[in-house]
Amino acid sequence: MKYIFANWKSNKNRKDAEHWMDEFDKNYAHFASHEDLEIIIAPPMPSLMFISNRLLDRQKHPHVYLAVQDLSSYPAGSYTGAVSTVNLEGFNVKYAILGHSERRNYFEESDMDVAKKVDQAVEAGITPVVCVDEDYIESQAYAIDKKHHKKCIVAYEPLSAIGTGDEMNPKKVVEVVNRIRKAFGDVRVIYGGSVDGDNVKDYLEVCDGVLVGGASLKVDEFKRLV
Ligand code: PGA
Question: By CB atoms within 10 Å of each CB, which of 80, 108, 140, 214 scores lowest?
Fold first, then answer.
């Protein structure tokens, strides 16, 4: 199985999200043409309910799943502004992207914060997609409860490649995938950083999937990539 995550980050208002889903549905035959491919949409939180409703008709969307871009490191309770796994019940969220470098840089998340989020996700039956760059592969693995390692998908996200068009050489990705598997065990590893329709094939040959930012924002471009 290969995984293609569409991470919209903080882009799109409700109308844009609806338009994206309309276009996606129009092209659905194309998106669903590979049995061994999962497409995962990671919308901003306010669009989650709407997209979840659209995906509910599983007959129509058998290979498409939903992810959140972040999670609270705390359970349900008095944590104003945080989204707990309890808040997500009923929305069919299958994955949670955790510890993206943008979370680490702009919101000062630490390996320990990410580890706590992994605990929350695993407890709720949500698969954590733990993002790492080379500097903190081992420390992040060490912070996460060892019994959760095999439940994670690990995303190699080199900072130099995110949103820059300066994609990583796939040979380098192979090296880092091996390092990740040394630290986390035999986990699924995906790559993210300036993935587009031209280079995606190179990455799918060397790892289990891709985390796509910019190239997932327009259905046309995303379709070409898929
Ligand atoms: P990008 O983002 O595809 O826009 O480089 C990737 C990511 O942040 O995972």
Answer: 80
